[in-house]
Amino acid sequence: MLLVRRSLTQILKNLLRAGALACCLIPSMVEARLLQIIHTNDIHALYETAGSNKGGLAQLKYVIDQLRARAEAAGIDTLVTDGGDFTDGSIYRFSEAGAGPLRLLDSMGYDAAVIGNHDWLVGANQLNTYFDQIRPRTPFVTANFNIKPEHAALKQHFTPYIQLNKAGAKIAVLGLTTNEWLYDWLVVAGKMTSATKAAREWIPQLKRENDFVFVLSHLGFKKDRKIAARISEVDLMIGAHSHTELQKPRIVTNLDGKQVPIVQTGANGQFVGDLLVDLEPGLPLEVIHSKLVEVKTDGPQDQKISSLLQELRAELDQKFGFGWLSEVLGDSPVPMEPPKKNRTVWGDIYAEALRDAAGTELSLDFSMFFGPEQAAGPVTREKLFNYYPRTYSTQQPHGWTVWKVKVPGWLLKLVISATVEFGGFPNTAGLTYNVKQVGKLKILTKFRINGKRINPVKNYDVAISEGVGRGTDEISKFLRSFFLPKDTGVPIWEAVEYRLRKTNPERALSSLP
């Protein structure tokens, strides 16, 4: 039986390569085993464009519908999923007091979605309000999200998993989201359940009740690999969070020798995942075809999503004041490149803005908080926010504020060294260091604060973002008493606007080494 299946699989692959799938497959043959999976992840509210003529939500929806129609014409069932971080990453986060992105997501026609860490950074109270307002039809699968009794809307719309009958098989889709200790205080007083623990609890049970178990994960590629390798009942990982662009599935061999595919589309709505699998109960899932379909900003659009975006844009203009978001504050001769790996012109401008607003010796921020690159040319307030698109509250649409803390020199060195070692980039003003590569290790030396050697026992006043400041304030009394976090009340994009009016980006460009 397995040999026959492999032969049929190879025939199907050859037909796909020849572009003959839709017209050559016999419906009675494919209905029992083929499933078209269409997946997206980490769109980050980049609903108009991701830049460089890539992305756009209406364009992405058009691609999804084309893939769905192609499969349905061949008699193939479809499963459409989103891997989370759909709502946070641009000014659209504030539309309809935060509920606008959820309305958009629910209009996409997903069969299942998982909440990402950026989706729940507004906290459970606000998230519950959005779900109560929109009442989405989309199932949200999240097995490790703690929900308080008072969050009735979340209890109604969140479920650990869904079970489907598709392609002649019983399929369970389990959702797992990121459990980050720095932010889970926003969800519940305590800790979000470990994703690995939830996976071990749910997956064996679901496998007993279903032919296949798919995990819709917002954990990142490395954790997806561990779960796929260590929990033998997993059949497919549909990933997100790490922004890993997998043009072809990565295959992990688990403890039983079964091969488990992992798929992910990267980020920012630049691609839609097109995955065709062969499902036969009792046999491992077989990948027939897989590719990432590029989404072009100038491509065809879904009119329903396009109209909804126009409505939300009009609502934003009314909220902020007509012309306020689009007001030109200056001109950048270079793209607004985020400091993901190295110093950049605009990374320096933001670091200096934090230090100025807090009145401190230095500032420290982290590459993971920055948004996507913004185009060179006129700089508007909307660009300033989209470059650093972080907020804990959609009720007061100003984004994170500037905070300041006291940090001893030894801990500054430790934090910066750890950030670099784990692949991040500490964006600083007033603090410099050298990086030396020794084998696979990165050794940091010659720490200087405003040109002077760092004093390990001195407490330095450090400007930081609200993302770190509120975390140290909320996580524990110990951290609060140790770091003495204080909110300046100055929104980061306001601090940057003030600095931009004082310092033209061209001057900042000349200051780079």
Overview of this protein structure:
With 513 residues, the protein is of the alpha/beta class. It has two domains: 32-306, 4-Layer Sandwich (Purple Acid Phosphatase, chain A, domain 2); 323-510, 5'-nucleotidase,  domain 2 (Alpha-Beta Complex), CATH 3.90.780. The protein has 18 helices and 23 strands. The strands form six sheets. It has a six-stranded mixed sheet with strand order 6-7-8-9-11-10, with helices on one face. A five-stranded mixed sheet has the order 3-2-1-12-13. It has a five-stranded mixed sheet with strand order 18-15-22-17-23. β20 and β21 form a beta hairpin. α15 (466-475) packs across α16 (477-483). The longest helix is centred in the middle third of the chain and has 18 residues, at 303-320. The chain is globular. The protein starts with a helix and ends with a helix. The model is unreliable at 17-32 and 508-513 (pLDDT under 50).
Brief overview:
The chain is α/β, with parallel strands linked by helices.
